[in-house]
Amino acid sequence: MFDFSEPLNEAFAPGGALARRLPGFSARESQIEMAQAVGNAIETQSALVVEAGTGTGKTFAYVVPALLSGRRVLLSTATKTLQDQLFNKDLPLVREALGVPVNVALLKGRQNYVCHFHLERALKEARLPSPREVDHLQKVKIFAGRTHTGDRADCAGVPEDSAVWSWVTSNKDNCLGGECPNASECFVNKARRDALDAEVVVVNHHLFLADLALKEEGIAELLPACDVIVFDEAHQLPDIATSLLGQAISTAQCQEFLRDVLIEGRTSSADAGDWDSVLRPMELALKEIRRIVGTEIDSARFTHAQFLALNGVAAVCADFENRLEGLIEMISPLSVRNESWVKLMGRASELCLRWQDWFSPATAQADEQSVRWVSVSTHVVQFCDSPLDVSNAFAKLYAEQPKAWVFTSATLSIKESLQHFTLQVGLDECQQLLLPSPFDYESQALLCVPDNLPFPNEPQFSKKLCDAVWPLLHASEGGVFFLCTSHRAVKQVGEYLRERIEKDELDWSLLVQGEASRAELLDQFRVLNNPVLVGAASFWEGVDIRGDGLRLVIIDKLPFAPPDDPVFQAKSELIKNRGGNAFQDLSLPDAAIALKQGAGRLIRDETDWGVLLIGDRRLVEKGYGKLLWRSLPPFKRTRELKVAIEFMRDKRQK
Questions:
Q1: Most CB contacts within 10 A, which of 501, 523, 621, 634?
Q2: Secondary structure class of 528 (helix, strand, coil)
Q3: pLDDT in tens, 383-404
Q4: What is the pTM of this model?
């Protein structure tokens, strides 16, 4: 058995491997303690859960023992952005510092890689919506001829949300596999081969859990050979698992299928019928479903019953199902012509089965362990069937794959207990470690919950909140995150702040979620003068703004799940049926974790400072509020807005 103590101590010691490579590096006691715990978990092939407060340096604390162990390691992050940072920056740096010849690979989902077959087809057949997408397609063509990885994240000039990506990448439905004429040069196959040959592989939670359900993205091949699995930002695992371990079918999935049928029909089977007249009504039906939901709605969730109760939606969905069955009859005889039609026939049958199953009233609530619901985004309607308890799936995985399992995040505990998390991910026995942040929160930051605010259920709450906190906003002179618990509030706050900024003729830059991509908004926030960013859930975590650039974080309400959310409703009902208390066992813990994430945007470094204002007086006036604020970092606290303004002005003058 490998003894970690000596090489770990040397790596983190003053004048050690990391200090020699990183001028100014100084290990913290909590970082060393975490590294030793990770090393012990690797030695004993056991499970470890670590909450490492912001500033602990948790990435190095698990990367160093992972690289020193000589074992095969799988590192999973919450997002592709963090995945890229780990692969491109952190791992190479530590590998060089330690001088270990470890082969590292990056593996993403299939749709992150340019597909030669679909790119060639798009260049011939694509009917793109605008000259902008035509330009993007040409840039992808040039990129594909130069890149060694095919990773779309490396394709400069083509944004993540460009419509062209759905044309030039493959998915599990339309990949031709071994029958593809471009199989030998496939970027996905290359990424999988590199992963199988590497000692350390970097993936993300979505890929890991999707593959756990589908066994089609390459993780299933990697798991048996891995000795160590580390989940960073592990607090996201339960929600991601709920989304991915069930079944889903979306209007976008159906639209892509119809597009592929149209292209194949025109190129190889024009004699089989009038493809445009058959497919056009189906495309219109999918658009009509989104229109019925409400084009003014950017994001929403419906229960199975609520969705089917929408005026006219049941008839449109039934019409689409009938036409899909007719399309299957039309393309079934064509399977003998080529492999593309074989794949399309398989996709058609699968889509039809899922569509029929989801819309069948007989199976809508047949299983109390799952919930059927609808997720609506700007352009897509997704029909989901999600498990309510994912702990058994995780427990089964541990039993089938005995190895070292490490889970870490800055936000895992509730009232200094990790039980809420361990129960969700099916961990009966594990080592647990709570490591506080090394930051001096009492001197660096102030938590303000003004005593003159309206309650969140009062009419025009968002406007009244903005009025109340405007003096503090003014004192900050920008450098503000205004975090909201709903997209509706984002819109209201954005409109009101724009009016006030224009009225007072302030030289501030207002950035509102929905007006640009998340990445573009964050890039602008870092470079513009006096920025104020208004955002919802996606800005509550995974955002790292250091220094004076971010000096005020405002959170409008306590982040309780909406009571009408279908997944929340179903989970609450399950907890009640098991004799539990849904508020104590679900609402409160989830809100505590989300609040910690939002508050964590403020102090990211030892020299950072700022004010956290929470506009929900329930935090200090309701009995349950104590659990929530006790879960936050130990900020100095006040209920007087003038104290926060004085704190802001004093800090800005220093």
A1: 501
A2: coil
A3: 999 999 999 999 999 998 899 9
A4: 0.91
